[in-house]
UniProtKB/TrEMBL annotation:
UniProt KW Protein transport keyword: no
Organism: Carex littledalei
Lineage: Eukaryota, Viridiplantae, Streptophyta, Embryophyta, Tracheophyta
Gene Ontology biological process terms, A to Z: mitochondrial electron transport, succinate to ubiquinone; mitochondrial respiratory chain complex II assembly; tricarboxylic acid cycle
InterPro entries reported for this sequence: SDH, SDH_sf
Name under which the protein is recorded: Succinate dehydrogenase assembly factor 2
Amino acid sequence: MAMLRRALVRCQQNLTLAGAVHSVRSPLRPQYGLLSSLSTDCGSYEVDLSNEESKRRLFNRLVYRSKQRGFLELDLVLGNWVEENIRSMDELRIKALIDVLDLENPDLWKWLTGQEQPPDAVNNNPVFNAVKSRVTENLSKHSDPATRSIPGQPWVRGWDDKRGLDGPKFGNQ
């Protein structure tokens, strides 16, 4: 993903230097250098909830983006949450959802599971807080606290964490 961003930024710079782009507004996001039709950073994207067809398209696009991130745990967590809550969201919360969907997968997962503290801009996002509370609730219900990371500390237990005095001598058995 980072290589794609760099290639897009280089392409945009080359076009600008060559003078090929004068009147065309750049679709590149200034913060990330990524093409995105759902970007709220560039200010040109309007969330259109005026008619049912545009609402349906927007909702389908956001559900798809939340379920097809390429990071299975986030696909499940975000996809289910968005599917359950998107129909009740207003324009501001939809823009907040778009901001959450624009975050990088590893960082978002660490922030949601409490392995790292999120930046203030992310921590003040109402959608991020709602998803994080759902993740925290599920972790509290279904897993022993000893199996989770200490807040602010990385999870260091690995596949062979049963090795020791009472564990197997070889492999993950």
